[in-house]
Amino acid sequence: MIRPHHEAAGGKARARTYDYVIVGAGSAGCVVVRRLVDGNDATVLLLEAGGPGADVASLTNPPQWAENLGSRYDWAYHYEPCPHIAHRSIALPLGKVLGGSGSINAMIWTRGHRADYDGWAKAGNPFWDFISVLPLFKKSEDWEGGANEFRGAGGPIRVERAKDLHRWRQRSSTPACPMACRTS
Prior knowledge:
With 184 residues, the chain is of the alpha/beta class. Helices cover 27% and strands 10% of the residues.
């Protein structure tokens, strides 16, 4: 059973040692913990710098995602200024909350481009090519359309197509939706 550390004690002393320590309770960290504890008696300590955020509207209601950028749920990192973009520094939103970046980015799921993985393999990282990592992505997914050549089903991360995007654009008054995309 998985319980938050403050509930885990239940009157008993907390473990002094753990079989595994996972740092970061984002999507990947949570999947790793689940895989480690399923079907065995492993003890796992999952560390997360942010809180649970369970009752925060901007974290639980995807159309409010832009409110998370620069908030206490965002590490507020920025890329170094770059001459190719007029020496601007671009924000790099990363979640500081249970669920990690998936909690602050409207729950968008993306794997990265096939060429990136293949490039890592060519750079000397064997087994990082797209064909090698694809089964791992498929194992983690529960794709709404079921398993196919590129998608998995039955995994711990539910993946669905975006819905009601036009309706969201009409109602949006967040800075993330510029005037040009508003229909009203």
